[in-house]
Specification:
Blueprint lengths: L15 E5 L2 E4 L4 E4 L2 H4 L8 H13 L11 H12 L5 E7 L2 H18 L7 E5 L8 H6 L3 H4 L9 E4 L4 H4 L6 H19 L4 E6 L2 E2 L6 E2 L4 H12 L2 E5 L23 E4 L11 E6 H9 L14 H16 L2 H20 L5 E7 L2 E6 L15 H11 L2 E2 L1 E3 L9 E5 L7 H14 L1
Parallel strand pairs: 3-15, 5-6, 5-7, 7-10, 10-11
Antiparallel strand pairs: 1-2, 2-3, 4-12, 8-9, 11-12, 13-14, 14-17, 16-17
Helix pairs in contact: 2-11, 3-11, 8-9, 12-14, 13-14
The structure holds 4'-deoxy-4'-aminopyridoxal-5'-phosphate.
Pfam family, one: Aminotran_3
Cofactor: pyridoxal 5'-phosphate
Protein name: Aspartate aminotransferase family protein
Length: 435
């Protein structure tokens, strides 16, 4: 008996006692391969010696400093490191403690940008039905999954939702990628016109949709069209790379592969690699200038923002990724993982789609391959797969069933960047057995 409240009240999770490299060990001594990085968090695996050394040194030097009094060298160095390779135009990083906080900061920066520039009527937020942006009330309203929101209506904030770019489900027979990208992006323009262009503050999207949909990238020039539409109507573009960012898809920032830069960009998860809770909101020069030349203040903050321990973890993770050229390994091993999934599941009668970028890959399960009919949500196929995988010592990240905008069940794989070909063969075999 414990007084710790588990989210799954009647089926508490197993108890982990240690983790090293890509393996967890539980209280019974059983080992698990971490093929999901938790929730796409553990990019360097567990107990990485360089990160541990950096954390020990930081703990001895300076564990905590409230940002109302002090900045720190690690927080500034991490911000400089992130901005040095960030998409064009992003000029500053705001350090918080996780993904939801990063999204909240981005939403508030967007709103404050318009009050500082004399357009307070621009307050609508548009997002996509197939999305997850966090669990705090603003982020919850922004995300597309209704089942997470249902118990909390009326919401404090109202966001507006459009269809995602989801080729497997929505691209029509005979429609080219170029035409589909244009059609899907057109949803945003239609929504902006419906709401009234001068009332819209921002559009929020994940470049590669993670938790709600299983590694769904956009097709063709979708995000270039989205960027152009935002520019045409003066709407800020917020990209949420909390899950897909920080190297997960093979480039440090996922949107590099879409050839665009946002006005605001959120990161977390892989930023701290699980060693510390950390998130960041990167903002463009235009937003920074509006604050700097206006009130001189960002009207938002948290007690643990810019935490030196978290910054030290983030900095150490970034240094290892650069030194060990791990983005190349994400690209190479991502291709191996995709081939493995293709040969294990390419002909499987209940796998309808295999998709993703880099070490962010997923399979989508269907009751019928030809019609793409999903399984009855009541069967909770994703939950069965998770349990069967855990029995076989494999951690994967299945989701699905009733999430709004997602038709079925999927299994997401996001192993650490240090994964090898032999590890991936083992992961694929265990997943195949579990499925
Ligand atoms: N945005 C995205 C895209 C996410 O995947 C998540 C977490 N799954 C969040 C925001 C929220 O992050 P956190 O759980 O750290 O608050």
């Amino acid at each position: 008996m414990t007084h710790l409240l588990h989210r799954t009240i009647h089926t508490p999770p197993r108890k982990a006692v240690s983790a090293s490299g890509i393996h967890f060990t539980d209280a019974a001594g059983k080992q698990y391969i971490d093929a999901s990085g938790g929730a796409a968090v553990s990019c360097l695996g567990h107990a990485h010696p360089d990160v541990l050394a950096a954390l020990h040194a930081q703990l001895d030097r300076l564990a905590y400093a409230h940002t109302g009094f002090f900045t720190s060298d690690v927080a500034e160095e991490l911000a400089d490191t992130l901005i040095a390779s960030a998409p064009a135009g992003l000029s500053h990083a705001y350090l918080v403690s996780g993904g939801s906080e990063a999204v909240e900061a981005a939403l508030k920066m967007a709103r404050q940008y318009f009050t500082e520039t004399g357009q307070p009527q621009r307050r609508h937020i548009i997002a996509r039905r197939q999305s997850y942006h966090g669990n705090t009330l603003g982020a919850l309203a922004t995300g597309g999954n209704e089942w997470r929101r249902a118990q909390f209506r009326p919401l404090l904030m109202q966001a507006h939702h459009i269809a995602p770019c989801y080729a497997y489900r929505d691209q029509r027979a005979g429609e080219t990628d170029a035409d589909y990208a244009l059609r899907a992006a057109g949803e945003l323009e239609a929504k902006i016109l419906e709401l009234g262009p001068d009332t819209v503050a921002a559009f929020v999207a994940e470049p590669v949709v993670g938790a709600t949909a299983g590694a769904v990238p956009a097709v063709g020039d979708y995000f270039k069209h989205i960027r152009a539409i935002c520019d045409r109507y003066g709407v800020l573009l917020i990209l949420d790379e909390v899950m897909c960012g920080m190297g997960r898809t093979g480039s440090l920032y996922a949107c590099e592969q879409d050839g665009i830069a946002p006005d605001l960009l959120t990161i977390a998860k892989g930023l701290g690699g699980g060693y510390q809770p950390i998130g960041a909101t990167l903002l463009s020069r235009k937003i920074y200038d509006a604050f700097a030349n206006g009130s001189g203040f960002f009207q938002h903050g948290h007690t643990y923002m810019g935490h030196p321990m978290a910054a030290a973890a983030g900095l150490a993770v970034q240094k290892v990724i650069a030194r060990d050229n791990l983005l190349a390994n994400v690209q190479d091993m991502g291709a191996v993982l995709r081939e493995n999934l293709q040969s294990a599941f390419g002909q499987h009668p209940h796998i309808g789609d295999i998709r993703g970028r880099g070490l962010f890959q997923a399979i989508e399960l269907v009751a019928d391959r030809d019609s793409k009919a999903p399984f009855d949500p009541a069967r909770k196929i994703h939950a069965h797969i998770k349990r069967e995988a855990m029995e076989r010592g494999l951690m994967v990240y299945p989701m699905g069933g009733t999430i709004d905008g997602v038709q079925g069940d999927h299994v997401l794989l996001a192993p650490p960047f240090i994964v090898t070909k032999a590890d991936l063969a083992d992961i694929t075999q265990r997943l195949s057995d579990a499925v």
